Amino acid sequence: KEITNSGVIDISHGLSQLTHLISFQINLGGTNISDVGVSHLMDAIQSLQHLSHLHLDLSYCRKVADVDGQKICDVVQARTSLIDVFVKVCETGISNGGCLLYTSD
Question: How many alpha carbons lie under 13 Å from residue 46 in its C-beta half-sphere?
């Protein structure tokens, strides 16, 4: 089945309940999620105070746009506990055309 915004919202709600989570990896590449799903997911990630490892793949999510890219950057930069970050946004609606949005390396 296709992962949709409502599915990502459900994932985000559950994720926000895992307050002591230190590592999170999710591949949403090629799904139909849009700004709604990305916004909820980033809000959940922002709430994870102990998160130190984040791998997020949004490749080929054509509905992910500039506003989503900015929110992703803002959340990642605000999470000072992160020591390992990899965010991939190849072939999305983000206008900078870059394949790799953010990495800790």
Answer: 13
